[in-house]
């Protein structure tokens, strides 16, 4: 399932979704925190991205493992695997950041929704969620860069 789509490695295709969705989630979630007047315009986008970003990160990890296994099966070896390991490590950390970011973003959406079914929460809940969203967003941006850069270096580092 995570190996190929029409002869191309799934990983090569899905990483572009991660590079799009994770930064969009981070930026829009921070905008949701910092621009309360715009929340009604950002809420659905943040909610969709809070699900899509972790999902694409999960598919990228699984397809990356399948891609690495395919390279090993074809006889690839040498220092490239050190770069692949570093890239994989960054990707795992990114996933461990993006999942909580998605969860905290959804919790913040619920806490600030004003919906009558949402119970009255302590006053401290919203600021704590807001700080968590900002901190996780910064971490996600850092690790999406590190993951993408290490992957690009592994592929293109000696080409140009």
Characterise the protein shown here.
- This protein is an all-alpha fold.
- 78% of the residues lie in helices and 2% in strands.
- It contains four helices and two strands.
- The protein has a two-stranded antiparallel ribbon.
- Helix 1 runs parallel beside helix 3 and helix 3 packs antiparallel against helix 4.
- The longest helix is centred in the middle third of the chain and has 35 residues.
- It is elongated and about 60 Å long.
- It starts with a strand and ends with a helix.
- The relative contact order is 0.16.
- The mean pLDDT is 91.
Distance linking N and C termini? 33 Å
Q: Care to count the β-strands?
A: 2
Rounded radius of gyration (Å): 18 Å
Unreliable stretches = none
H/E element sequence: EEHHHH
Largest sheet: 2 strands, antiparallel
What integer is the average pLDDT? 91
Tally of helical segments: 4
Please list the strands of the largest sheet in the order they lie side by side. 1-2
The helix content is over 70%
Judged by helices, strands and strand pairing, the structural class is mainly alpha
Strand portion, in percent?
under 5%
Task: Note the overall shape.
Answer: elongated
Topology readout:
Elements lengths: L3 E2 L2 E2 H25 L4 H35 L6 H32 L13 H32 L4
Antiparallel strand pairs: 1-2
Helix pairs in contact: 1-2, 1-3, 1-4, 2-3, 3-4
Gist?
With 160 residues, this protein is mostly helical. Helix content is 78%, strand content 2%.
Keywords:
single chain; 160 residues; mainly alpha; elongated
């Amino acid at each position: 399932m995570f190996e190929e789509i029409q002869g191309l490695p799934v990983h090569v295709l899905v990483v572009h979704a991660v590079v799009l969705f994770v930064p969009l989630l981070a930026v829009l979630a921070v905008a949701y925190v910092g621009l309360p007047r715009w929340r009604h315009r950002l809420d659905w986008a943040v909610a969709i991205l809070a699900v899509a970003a972790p999902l694409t990160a999960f598919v990228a990890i699984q397809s990356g493992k399948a891609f690495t296994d395919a390279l090993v099966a074809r006889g690839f070896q040498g220092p490239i695997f050190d770069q692949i390991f570093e890239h994989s490590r960054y990707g795992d950390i990114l996933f461990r950041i993006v999942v909580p970011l998605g969860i905290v973003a959804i919790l913040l959406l619920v806490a600030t929704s004003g919906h009558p079914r949402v119970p009255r929460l302590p006053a401290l809940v919203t600021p704590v969620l807001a700080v968590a969203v900002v901190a996780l967003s910064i971490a996600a941006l850092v690790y999406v860069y590190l993951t993408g850069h290490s992957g690009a270096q592994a592929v293109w580092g000696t080409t140009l």
